[in-house]
Amino acid sequence: MKTSLTYTLIMSCIIANITIAQKKNTMSANPKEIIAPKKAVVYQVFTRLFGNKNTTNKPWGTIEENGVGKFNDFTDKALQEIKKLGVTHIWYTGVPHHDVIRDYTQYGISNDDPDVVKGRAGSPYAVKDYYNVNPDLAVNPAKRLEEFESLIARTHKNGLKVIIDIVPNHIARNYHSLSNPKGVKDFGTDDDTSVEYARNNNFYYIPGKAFEVPTSDTYKPLNGEQNPLIDGKFTEYPAKWTGNGSRQAKPDINDWYETVKVNYGIKPDGSKDFPELPAGYDTKDCKAHFAFWKDKDVPSSWKKFRDIALYWTAKGIDGFRYDMAEMVPYEFWSYMNSAIKMKNPKAFLLAEVYNPKEYRNYIKLGKMDYLYDKVETYDHLKAVIQGKTLPDGLSDIQNGLADIEHHMLHFLDNHDEQRLASPEFAGTPEKGKPMMVVSATLSSSPTMIYFGQEVGEDGKENAGFGTHSRTSIFDYIGVPHHQRWMNEGKFDGGQLSQSEKALRDFYKRLLNFTLSSDALMGKYQEIQKYNRDTTSGYDSGLYSFVRWSAKERLIIVANFSWVTTSNFELKVPETIIKSWDLKDGLYDVTDQLYGSKAQLKVTNGIGTIQLSIKPSESFILKL
Fold this sequence. Notes:
Blueprint: H1 3-13, H2 23-26, E1 41-46, H3 47-50, H4 63-66, H5 76-84, E2 89-93, E3 96-98, E4 127-133, H6 144-157, E5 161-166, E6 170-172, E7 205-206, E8 239-240, E9 259-261, H7 286-293, H8 300-314, E10 319-322, H9 330-343, E11 348-351, H10 359-365, E12 370-372, H11 374-385, H12 393-400, E13 408-411, H13 432-441, E14 447-450, H14 480-486, H15 498-516, E15 523-526, H16 528-534, E16 542-548, E17 553-559, E18 566-572, H17 574-579, E19 585-591, E20 597-603, E21 606-613, E22 618-622
């Protein structure tokens, strides 16, 4: 690990991510002492589903049939229990007003056409009004923004930070804000629709052609239900490019046809039509980036999304999760993120980026705090638990990311992916335990979990548009394991089984340890290869590494096997023993999860620990 470079990057834009929940661990009696940052833990909730108590779960069910959660369901008790789990930030997913199939015309909201809406509850990534929130989430839709503002305040009162989505690459086809601040115009209002591309157009157009609703032999809006707006038509002339970049007036049914792509000054041939950052800006901080853009002429869409982000920042939002950020040029991110940091240096900026070759551009030039570590760490862990590969490759991944490891957020579950406990992924929540330990302790990056993960939610419901293995983001549905923890709004786990209670206890122990650990913000070194090559009984499912700082030393061992108990003598190489300045002798070590004891024996400069590790068990051994 290149610790000095990691901390330089952290200090430039991110050091202020220390949260209220962590202050007791980081406050110093010496005001001149630099306070090291600690781990952040993000709890993603799908806001529409979190508080829903209805267990009907009818495919394609309405709100009346299947229920829906509200902002008010996040009570002080709920928020306190989430915080006690070991959480610092809540990502309220699906808050901005997106298309929904429900009549809110009495509140001045136009009805949305099922021909261009996915599911009945609608995709949270087809935003219709960026200056307001989803009316489904409010007890009184006329006061929906005020109800969300109350939730922001309530979340802060309970010592947690608030993250919401911004979806910069695309917006709903029928975007229309009822809540624009004074002087703000809707996207596309001033566009020249006679041309495919103009620098200050907010959209790309297909001149002379009308949009056509995609067709399919296997899919019908609302599952074929009668609806006055379902006629296979949606008026849009000229047609716009579709959200995923399709340039067809009639996109494919598998395209993101419910959305239109936003133009950021990228010409149809892929060339850039805006100022580019000069050489050397990869090493400059947010203040320098902000200064660079201050006198530059930038495309209209840049200004619109910057204003949206600053609008929510002013309302107390502590950070953003950016959907499909790599489909938008990193120069725009430099422009917007530096503007956000000037208003809130502590802002938590997380981006969905899946191209490892672009990671450093989005971190260093785009000024992102964190990116998904999906295609490397997540994908490898998934392959390990499915028996497709050995865990050994994790070492190469971590070493390859050493200069940016702090910025690569780790997760095993989110709204896009198959549920960790689903048959399509790990198969049982217990098999996910060693994955979670490694994911949460392998680097100094934040950890994210998805609501229900901590009680074994497996996403097996057929919700309608969304089917099994993922908790649907398109439908009104209940989340059974989570509902058992919610216990009719008591948020006390009263309906959980013993195994579900034990699982949540495991997550609570692990996440709270990561919040307080100094070593997890320090150095990393794998001891996997050394043990694989030299240790008798070191079975194929085992993975081991060490983490340390000046204050704390950890030896972490995980058993990914779900059938094999391994008995072996773990070796700690001479290089580690020397780094830790350990002399020959015996040293007590204690597991930080469940308190079991062992001894590290150092002989001739090499350490050994006698271990017996059960299937799906892990140890975080602290000297």
